[in-house]
Amino acid sequence: MITLKQIYTLLFLLGIFFIPFNEFDGLSFLGEYKDEAASYFFLLGFGVAITENVLAKKIYFPYKNPLIVILILFILWTFLSTMINYGTVSTSFYKQTSGINRYIRQTISLLISAGCFTFLFWNVIKDLSIVKSIRLIRKVILYSFIFVSVYGFIEIAIVFFGMGFLKPVLSLFEFFPFVNNSLHTGHRVGISSVTYEIPALGNYLIFVTPWMLSYIFTEKKVMRFAPITIILILTFFSDARAALIVISMQLFLFLLVLLHDERFRLQTINILKIGAVAVFAILMIKGNAIINTAEEKLDRINFSKNLTQSISNKSRFGMQYAALEVFKENPVCGVGFGQGAYHMVPHYPYWATANNWEYSYMYKNQQYKSFPPQYNMYTRLLAEAGIVGTILFTILVALPIYYSLLLWTKASFRNKYVGVILLLSFIGFAVNWLQIDFFRQYGFWLCLALLVKALIDFKNKSTTFGTY
Fold first, then answer.
1. DSSP 8-state code for residue 97
2. Which of 11, 74, 258, 344 could be cross-linked to 268 through a Cys-Cys bond (beta carbons 3.0 to 4.6 Å apart)?
3. For residue 103, what is the DSSP state?
């Protein structure tokens, strides 16, 4: 007989597989989740999981764990800061949306990720060991990544190498659920695979990198290096600046981990030596072409150099500047959760709005209903939740990094990769939130649930996690 547990576990695994799939027209009432394939499976899974909990007359959720306590305090503060500012919230109106309506929508969005999804994730893994949970999830992520990679390589062949005859092959992917073809050959050339835009692919690659790196710990064959090699290729051709920065940081930290681990130290040093010789040889043969390509990539991430030239950078830093100006006026409590856009308009700097179609056509246009992105979670929270809310969120982001580092240092050699996955993941999310402003980061909430489970195994000195 099929149990409710089996049903929501299957929905959970399907959701993990479909995390990168977000280029389709979904149900509009789901708001920012409407085009996210994973969200449909996770929401259905949550419904089944909560039903099981109700029937069992017990709610299975680690609400006493320090990390979950911080999360609950943060959510409560977003409500309290909004109530403190109720006078302005109740009278705000922008882009055909009232302040109260905006608060409700943003709170629902937060609760879906931080509440519903985290609840589902916990119920799936609570009866498994952390090692078994990690291996199960990693296998599904690998299958999904293979699909993304095959699509991405065909896209590279078409966009960068002119193999237009492969377009019919790419069209065959549309028979797969949640896939719609789109090629980026306009003013910004790159690939997005099954995601809806170039930065979305970058966001996915940041999430998947630590999981693929962990195969270097657990596999013996040369193929263990294949996943990270593919990630580097996809990142290079995606033209996703944030992914290039964050993944480079993750790789550097992973290199330090390998050098610290006596099992891999000598092998890593030898690989670095061989790599240095290979790079030198390639530079001797194709030096000019490689240097030009490298300079082009570096120019893309040199924000100070192209701030006045890049529309994207002007919009990004203009929004962050305006958010900080709002914070200066409301430093303790902020202006209320989801209310930043109502107060930022007077603070848009001239250097950001001048000759910038994004502000005139989208951000300042009252008929364009989508609210402007704030491009940075930390500056957004400073404006909306004040210093109190930002501190709570920063603790929620920083504390998992500390705990993951603890797990890595204390775990047995055989299971150190668990701590490495979590450590690199949380660092990646923390840095990535410097350039995105939404809580819809499935990987963060998944890793949070996994970390709580790992800490419980750690506390109980579980033999399934290793000797401490």
1. E
2. 258
3. H
Total domains in the chain come to 2
Residue 367 lies in a domain: yes
Q: Is residue 403 part of a domain?
A: yes
Our CA angle for 351, 356, 357, nearest 5°, is: 160
Structure tokens at 358: 């994004």
- Average confidence (pLDDT) over 278-299: 59
Min mean pLDDT across 12-21, 34-43, 245-254, 262-271 is at 262-271
For 63-75, the pLDDT digits (tens) are 999 999 999 999 9
CA-based nearest residue to 411, from 208, 131, 139: 131
Q: In the listed set 234, 260, 286, which residue is the last one of a domain according to the structure? A: 260
76, with CB counted inside 10 A (0-12, 13-18, 19+), is exposed
CB 234 within 8 A of CB 243: no
Domain range spanning residue 87? Answer: 76-118+316-467
Q: Is the pTM of this model over 0.85?
A: yes
Q: How far apart are CA 140 and CA 368, in angstroms?
A: 39
Which 8-state DSSP code applies to residue 112?
A: I
Tokens representing 284? 């001797």
- C-alpha to C-alpha distance for 420 and 404, rounded to whole angstroms: 7
Label residues 25-49 b or e (16+ Cβ within 10 Å = b): eeeeebebbebbbbbbbbbbbbebb
Q: Which of 271, 297, 263, 231 is nearest to 413 (CA)?
A: 263
Mean pLDDT, the chain, integer: 90
- Nearest residue to 341 (alpha-carbon basis) of 369, 361, 308: 369
Instruction: Provide the 3-class DSSP secondary structure of residue 173.
Output: helix
Residues 84 and 165 in one domain: no
